[in-house]
Design a protein that fits this description.
Two copies of one chain form a homodimer.
Chain A: E1 5-11, H1 13-16, H2 24-34, E2 38-45, H3 49-62, E3 65-69, H4 80-87, E4 92-94, H5 96-105, H6 114-118, E5 122-124, E6 128-129, E7 139-143, E8 146-151, H7 155-173, E9 180-188, H8 193-201, E10 210-216, E11 219-228, H9 231-249, E12 253-256, H10 261-272, E13 276-280, H11 286-291, E14 301-306, H12 310-317, H13 321-327, H14 332-346, E15 350-356, E16 371-377, E17 382-388, H15 393-415
Parallel strand pairs in A: 1-2, 1-3, 3-8, 13-14, 13-15
Antiparallel strand pairs in A: 4-5, 6-7, 7-8, 9-11, 9-12, 10-11, 15-16, 16-17
Helix pairs in contact in A: 2-7, 3-4, 10-15
């Protein structure tokens, strides 16, 4: 039996004028795809009741379920409910639960006139609010025996309702229409797409294994998908393909699925009970900021110094003014002195330092834009790597941050013999 | 006369499975909108010849021009040309210029068999290559007297051909179909969307002025568009509406269009010849990282300290251990000591410090998650603001960084009487 076909409709002039990048449709598509549905089409249209009605009716004529985002708010350009009401001939009626909820909360939101907020409670007849207790718009409508979900366009609210309400409801709708999907993203750094492609092509994987290559700067993502109703075959094929890929690509794979480089580095530091401090010049705080994205990062990150000016390199890292004068701030020697300085002053186990020329100005023939030194200082040894990164300022900064973290990762992987191999990261799904 | 209507079709399984975020459609929409066209709809479909054909024929039936991206490459999942050929009944034929170009370059790209690359030269009959000398796919087809543009899905190539080929060709197509478009985004921080809406509604603007509201966390963007063939009226209306909006929203508007808070703060610091240093606890480097995004930021940013651990607050900022013990790291007193410390040690003009509880753990009844102190130290005075930010860890961090920068902005706006008012930021377009 074919998988259930779903169409996504995103509404908003901010999307069709290109002012706002549409991230919610992509989020929905990924979660629906991973749950075993087929995405028939994704549409983006402006705040026009006629276009909204047309798109909705066309979708109902060709797919099994529809997801609509945007245009549910209180402002005058929020026209989705009006359009749905007209297109499907379902007059809007007040949802009493939402209405009483709004009135109960009016104290908290005193600045607003009642009438504006009460717009949220007027839904097309037959609509069932997804979460009437919350202050998020969003409802389900069953029309022509097909479920239609309406979600707010605000990414945070949309993502919440997608995960908590839409996916469970869809899952109960037609169990038979879902294919078992085994899917993995391998996240690869420091290996070009063509090289990844060449190595994977050499594996001669089964034609039932679908492979995709996606450069997502500064990484390459390799997607592996096996879909089948016959669970056992698909599972076995997925498992053996994962192993083969892990074997040929080795530790160029830094993580899988939703892993991030900073999360992987943090987990390694925590497992070895080591603490990191960072001295950043050209990245201006990007490395520390990424390392502290994750909760609990104070377990392994002490902090660091953004030594954008030379005076701070001296004051905070003990880099001598002689060294700065003789070798220049962007040099192997200064990078090492920064890493040693931040490690010693903060009493960290590992010091990481980066110094380089992010551009667009500041380059020279000897040290062009993109010249970056990355140094690591540990209890055992110090070392410095030199890079010539391509790209603009933003790209040089991102490549520098990612490379610095990747060097720490590779150092930690080799620090002890019983390290966590990428192959082992594959095991948790089985 | 109505503006020319354009439809955008993006093709690729990587898009409909949500693995890759579709940025090219948004790029195209923004440039087409700014050039005075209407975006009728944006579609995203998978690598299916049937769906590609359907979408193309539907678009031709309802708009004046079509832009198609993706599926033009050499691999087996690139099916656009095949689909176009079938849907529009235009057999593919080899483009001799592209073919000879490929053969001439074969030495450089030895790894690929001839047949794979020659796929690039086989285009639907009537196709005119956009840039046959380059190694980028992309062509124009005129069908039913409507232009259709086919561009590669690779963002860099797509963007290049969009700017260099598609926009000039469209511009020559039907000059009469373009409207003069005056458009501005007002970027607002620290005022809720409903309040922005209420204040703008009170202005009673002309119905020819199109207003949109877009929450883009942590900001609200207000979009103002006036489109007209009669240039003078539209321009006058746009100018007076801008002024009215600037008047009612005042310095809640921090910038316009593609401005960022960090760029605005940087420009103010540069214009006053002041230098900033930052001590960050819960934001972990986010503020410094944002401030150094822009080229030339070394003019006004000395750097700073990420004092994630208490030891670093003492070592690098001179915060006494007694103060830390008595008041706690998240306190008014420690925030002020951090700001004073980083200002004095780095010899900066202004010290900015943030300390708070980003969560999810670490909160208490007295100091719940979201409690944040932001301190500013200057030559004239020091002050501390307390916040209780809503949201998850990422949101608390972003609100803290944005609020810290906004406090610096407002301090600088009031520092001298001849400050740059938001109203003045409106003038450069006239």
């Amino acid at each position: 039996m074919a998988p259930m076909k779903i169409e996504i409709i995103a509404i908003g002039d901010e999307l069709t004028s290109g002012r706002i990048l549409n991230t919610t449709s992509s989020f929905a598509a990924r979660h629906l795809f991973d749950a075993g549905y087929d995405i028939y089409a994704m549409n983006t249209i402006g705040d026009s009741p006629r276009l909204i009605g047309e798109a909705l009716k066309r979708a109902l004529s060709r797919v099994d379920a529809v997801l609509v985002t945007g245009g549910l708010g209180t402002t005058d350009d929020d026209l989705t409910n009006e359009a749905v009401s007209k297109a499907l001939n379902r007059p809007t009626m007040p949802n009493l639960e939402i209405l009483s909820n709004i009135r109960a909360h009016l104290d908290e939101i005193t600045a607003n006139p009642v009438s504006d907020l009460e717009k949220l409670a007027w839904l097309p007849s037959g609509a069932e609010a997804l979460n009437p207790q919350s202050q998020m718009a969003g409802y389900q409508l069953i029309h022509d025996d097909k479920p239609i979900f309406f979600l707010p366009g605000v990414p945070r609210q949309m993502r919440h309702l997608m995960i908590e309400e839409v996916l469970p409801k869809l899952s109960n709708w037609h169990e038979d229409h879902r294919l078992t999907t085994y899917h993995r993203i391998f996240r690869i750094f420091n290996l070009p797409e063509t090289e990844v492609n060449r190595q994977i092509a050499s594996l001669d994987l089964s034609t039932d294994v679908h492979i995709g290559y996606y450069p997502v700067f500064p990484e390459v993502h390799l997607s592996l998908t096996v879909r089948d109703k016959k669970n056992n075959n698909a599972k076995r094929l997925f498992k053996s393909s994962c192993k083969a890929i892990n074997t040929v690509l080795g530790d160029s794979i830094y993580g899988i699925d939703r892993d991030s480089m900073e999360k992987i580095v943090g987990n390694l530091l925590r497992s070895y009970n080591l603490r990191l401090a960072v001295a950043e010049s050209c990245t201006g705080g990007l490395i520390c900021s990424r390392m502290t994205d994750s909760p609990g990062s104070s377990d392994y990150l002490l902090g660091g110094v953004v030594s954008y000016s030379n005076a701070l390199k001296t004051e905070y890292l003990g880099v001598s003014t002689e060294l700065l004068d003789n070798k220049g701030a962007v040099s192997r020697e200064v990078a090492e002195a920064m890493a040693v300085g931040v490690r010693e002053r903060t009493k960290a186990d590992i010091g990481l330092a980066v110094t380089g020329i992010a551009g667009p100005s500041g380059g020279s023939d000897a040290k062009p834009v993109g010249t970056v030194y990355i140094a690591i200082a540990t209890d055992e040894e110090n070392w410095v790597s030199k890079f010539n990164f391509p790209g603009n300022r933003k790209q040089v900064r991102e490549l520098t941050a990612q490379s610095g973290l990747d060097l720490i990762r590779k150092y930690l992987l080799r620090r002890e013999s019983h390290f966590l191999s990428p192959a082992q990261t594959c095991k948790e799904v089985f």
